[in-house]
Design goal:
EC 6.2.1.1, Ac_CoA_lig, alpha/beta, 21 helices, eight-stranded mixed β-sheet, seven-stranded mixed β-sheet, 31 strands, binds 5'-O-[(S)-ethoxy(hydroxy)phosphoryl]adenosine, 650 residues
Length: 650
């Protein structure tokens, strides 16, 4: 392994930092020694209608029960809006930067209050009640944030579905949580191209109806003015509806453990699961991590480039920043439109201080050339962040040297949809940085590495990453399937939360995430279950069997490599390959498009019929010298054919 460079905390990073290294060590020690005391204190960072007297009540054993601040009453939209009005009613809450660089607007906290209250009243008018599930399928426009906050105001549970998902994927999510109210837009706009959100919604509603879930109301935001279908009685224009209701709506008093949102995410097996987060602990954790990880100070302009369709958008565009009274920038577009300078142009235009993005974007922009960065100033930047997948040291150094001009710390933040907020991360004024390492645990987080047999590994080691005790932002269950929650996260290593990630700890106690150890692949920072892509492929009538694995991809981190066995008599053609890619896009969405399809007369299976993915991964990586023992295969000869026809010859 090449020598690791260490970037020490610079004096300027420490100067006004909220947390220095001594404070980190002290707080961390306290947080793991006495979580009740630590979180009892920090839980007060949000406002409670009724203060909690109990702090932590959690168990990773048996039925697994996770409760934080359970007897407290609060409301998320109250904390993200109302409590700021006195001090910062006229401060910008959201800066919206449109797909088109000439399209932007600012929304103050006062305005946010009115938008959210009106929308909450519209939902009430249509009968949406506490505990009801509302599906949000939106572009990156302020109304997406209004919709989230309006749900929390009345105690409805939102389920946001990423706008890039197909009608089938949207339908599956509507059906799973039996959601009868949908908020969408006529069309989305990204990189100058429109996305037919309403048309997709219409199709999804028809599919859901076949599964006996009847969507009763669709609220439609006019974004592009494009032509759309309309079901009178069911469909309502957002702009019409919000006009006719009152601009105030009292926030519902919610129990800390009342559900806040569901977010579907991919796992190793089966359909995406509905990760359920609850109210109090989630908000405490999202706001606290947002403040300390990004060293957020009052008045900072903060920009996270994620989409609200992913957990990063939930915790670090909307809930964390707004709970802290921040100015959060919401970007509708893409990094390379109209040019590869777009991110840095936006940084200069709005004087962004804190910038948080994904390694895949960094790598793509690195490939576009330094001149796109260098012609911009970026003087306002104080903290840079990375999330979603391991960042390779080359991309890290480029981000540091070129984007940050060697003056700005990078926080490489490791976390998951399930964790609600950041778990392993540097703190800008405290942590010496090592490119490629997410460094050290956040307060209250107890990582542990175990081998495949579950033996705990001490000191410098390489293993499977578990977390041994609960933190307030942790998911509480899989919506409607608590048994699946237990099996997925707590059964592999008994009594521990298993993350699904591999990880190395070095001699300094720094953590290096090495990627998923399960059948999940991480494509451009988006999680994709190989099982989902396989079932999409097999649903095509010419396909008899499919196996999907990840392989290293320069920009995406991992690409999707599919082995496909066709029905007998079907010819393997280039056209069929295209047809299969289109089919997967239709079933799931563009993010699941296979990068490579290899037609394979047979797949390597054990005598008991289990597909040996290890072999398929090696062939996809073009590393077939190291196939290992193939003697246990039912038919070792299939491997020769797979190697001969591999699609990734170097
Ligand atoms: C990966 C995104 C390395 C990891 C917030 C995890 C990372 C999965 C990092 C969760 C990071 C996320 N370094 N790997 N800084 N951040 N991952 O649920 O494999 O979309 O398990 O949450 O992304 O993806 P998810």
């Amino acid at each position: 392994m090449s020598e690791v460079r260490v970037h020490r905390v610079q004096p300027a990073w420490k100067k006004n930092a909220l947390i220095d290294n001594d404070t980190y060590l002290r707080w961390y020690g306290e947080s793991v020694k006495n979580p009740d005391k630590f979180w009892g204190k920090h839980g007060k960072r949000i406002d409670w209608f009724k203060p909690y007297t109990k702090v932590k009540n959690t168990s990773f054993e048996g039925k697994v029960s996770i409760k934080w601040f359970e007897d407290g009453l609060t409301n998320v939209s109250y904390n993200c809006i109302d409590r700021h009005l006195k001090k910062r009613g006229n401060q910008t809450a959201i800066i919206w930067e449109g797909d088109n660089p000439y399209d932007d607007k600012k929304i103050t906290y006062n305005e946010l209050y009115e938008h959210v209250c009106r929308l909450a009243n519209v939902m009430k008018k249509h009968g949406v009640k506490k505990g009801d599930r509302v599906t949000i399928y939106m572009p990156m426009i302020p109304e997406a944030a209004y919709a989230m906050l309006a749900c929390t105001r009345i105690g409805a549970i939102h389920s946001i579905v990423f706008g890039g998902f197909s009608p089938d994927a949207l339908a599956g999510r509507i059906v799973d949580c039996e959601s009868t109210f949908v908020i969408t837009a006529d069309e989305g706009l990204r990189g100058g191209k429109s996305i037919p959100l309403k048309e997709n919604t219409d199709k999804a509603i028809d599919i859901a109806a076949k599964h006996h879930v009847m969507v009763k109301d669709v609220l439609v935001v006019r974004r592009t003015g494009g032509k759309i279908g309309w079901a009178p009685g069911r469909d309502h224009w957002y702009h019409d509806e919000v006009r006719s209701v009152k601009p105030e709506c009292k926030p519902e008093k919610m129990k800390a453990e009342d559900p806040l949102f569901i977010l579907y995410t991919s796992g190793s097996t089966g359909k995406p699961k509905g990760v359920l987060h609850t109210t109090g602990g989630y908000l405490v954790y999202a706001s606290m991590t947002h403040q300390y990880v990004f060293d957020y100070h009052d008045g900072d302009i903060y920009w996270c480039t994620a989409d609200v369709g992913w957990v990063t958008g939930h915790s670090y565009i909307v809930y964390g920043p707004l709970a802290n009274g921040a100015t959060t920038l919401m970007f509708e577009g893409v990094p390379n439109y109209p040019s590869a300078s777009r991110f840095w142009d936006v940084v200069d235009k709005h004087k962004v201080n804190i910038f948080y993005t994904a390694p895949t974007a960094i790598r793509a922009l690195m490939g576009a050339g330094d001149e796109h960065v260098k012609k911009t100033s970026r003087k306002s930047l104080r903290v840079l962040g990375s999330v979603g997948e391991p960042i390779n040291p080359e991309a890290w150094e480029w981000y540091y040297n070129v984007v940050g001009d060697k003056k700005v710390p990078i926080v490489d933040t490791w976390w998951q949809t399930e964790t609600g907020g950041i778990l392993i991360t540097p703190l800008p004024g405290a942590t010496d940085l090592k490119p490629g390492s997410a460094t050290r645990p956040f307060f209250g987080v107890k990582p542990e590495l175990v081998d495949n047999e579950g033996n705990v590994l001490d000191g410098a080691a390489d293993g499977n990453l578990c977390i041994t005790d609960s933190w307030p932002g942790q998911m509480r269950t899989v919506y409607g399937d608590h048994e699946r929650f237990i099996q997925t996260y707590f059964a592999t290593y008994k009594g521990k939360y298993f993350t699904g990630d591999g990880c190395r700890r070095d001699a300094d106690g720094y953590y290096w995430i090495t990627g998923r150890v399960d059948d999940v692949i991480n494509v451009s920072g988006h999680r994709m279950g190989t099982a989902e892509v396989e079932s999409a492929l097999v649903s095509h009538d010419k396909v008899s069997e499919a196996a999907v694995v990840g392989y290293p991809h320069d920009i995406k981190g991992q690409g999707i490599y599919s082995y496909v066995t066709l029905m007998s008599g079907i010819e393997a053609t280039e056209d069929l390959r295209k047809e299969l890619v289109a089919h997967v896009r239709k079933e799931i969405g563009a993010i699941a498009s296979p990068d490579k399809i290899q037609f394979a007369p047979g797949l390597p299976k054990t005598r008991s019929g289990k597909i040996m993915r290890r072999i398929l991964r090696k062939i996809a990586e073009d590393d077939f010298g190291a196939l290992g023992d193939t003697s246990t295969l039912a038919d070792p000869a299939v491997v020769d054919d797979l190697v001969a026809n591999r699609q990734n010859k170097r």
